[in-house]
Design a protein that fits this description.
Blueprint: E1 9-16, E2 26-34, E3 40-46, H1 55-61, H2 65-68, H3 74-85, E4 89-92, H4 95-109, E5 121-123, H5 124-131, H6 136-144, H7 154-171, H8 179-185, E6 198-200, E7 206-208, H9 218-224, H10 226-234, H11 239-271
Parallel strand pairs: 1-4, 4-5
Antiparallel strand pairs: 1-2, 2-3, 6-7
Helix pairs in contact: 5-7, 6-7, 9-10, 9-11
């Protein structure tokens, strides 16, 4: 079953130096762009991470320091990648928890704007886990009936993710062939940031998911404990999480200023 699209969607996969979103780097990125008319284009780059690739990580994806030493850095590739994904929805396997957050970190580091405004994300792994509880290779075997050759090669994993999503739509009648539905279905919580340090509650208000202020509204915390914001900005949190909190703080200060001006105006009117 082909996807019903109103705009392009980019399936992508990252191979990295590790799994720490804040500190690890991309060593390979593969993009598969699917257009509403069914046309596709793909692109793969090896990336110089500018830090050492640990041996235990090389053992997983097979990419060595020697292979990437003369490859472009992500900062050099970022403008082209940004252009390809501009105006597109995104999809991957475990992408909500890892690939999108890490891509956002690299984009911010390269000083290229990246956000999820006007786009949705479909995490094929979440759909898979909600339905069958398996790995990518097992998922490809289960849904597509074939063994996944060269798993942990970025383009192989990217193409497999695309094929699995189409097979999932064929298999499950309750899955709507609609990117908004699939995006909603393929997440467990609505996140304000990518890494899940800030979520939205049932009232669509941002709340912290960690630390001494867990489950408390971010706006309330920023008003009563200004030092907490400073601590987060200086600690080892993802850059996108810091960006989101900075935006919330600016909104809080703006609303506070507006309320103060409104109160002063009311007092002035009473005197008149």
């Amino acid at each position: 079953m082909e996807l019903k699209l109103t705009k392009p969607i980019v399936f992508f996969d990252l191979e990295t130096t590790g799994i720490n979103i804040a500190t690890d780097r991309i060593v390979e990125i593969a993009l598969l762009k699917v257009y509403p008319n069914g046309n596709k284009e793909s692109k793969t780059w090896l990336v110089n991470p500018e830090i050492e690739i640990p041996k235990e990580t090389t053992a997983i994806h097979g990419i060595t320091n020697e292979q990437v030493v003369n490859e472009p850095t992500f900062k050099e590739l970022a403008p082209e990648i940004s252009k390809i994904i501009d105006g597109c929805d995104l999809s991957g396997f475990n992408s909500n928890r890892f690939d999108i957050p890490l891509l956002a970190e690299e984009m911010i580091r390269a000083k290229v704007n990246f956000d999820m405004n006007d786009r949705v994300a479909i995490d094929v792994q979440v759909i898979f886990h909600k339905k069958e509880e398996r790995t990518l290779s097992a998922g490809y075997k289960f849904y597509c009936g074939e063994d996944l050759e060269n798993a942990h090669s970025a383009m192989v994993d990217t193409t497999a993710t695309y094929e699995i999503l189409k097979a999932q739509l064929e298999k499950y009648d309750d899955l709507e062939n609609n990117v908004d539905f699939l995006s909603e279905y393929s997440r467990y919580h609505k996140r304000a940031d990518f890494a899940g340090f800030v979520l939205f509650n049932d009232e669509n208000e941002e709340i912290f998911t960690f630390g001494k202020y867990k489950n408390q509204k971010v706006e309330d915390v920023l008003l009563k404990d200004k030092g907490y914001f400073s601590w987060i900005q200086n600690a080892d949190f993802p850059l996108y999480t810091k960006k989101i909190l900075k935006g919330i703080k600016e909104r809080v200060l703006h609303n506070k200023k507006e309320n103060t001006l409104e109160d002063l105006q009311k007092k002035f009117n009473k005197k008149l």
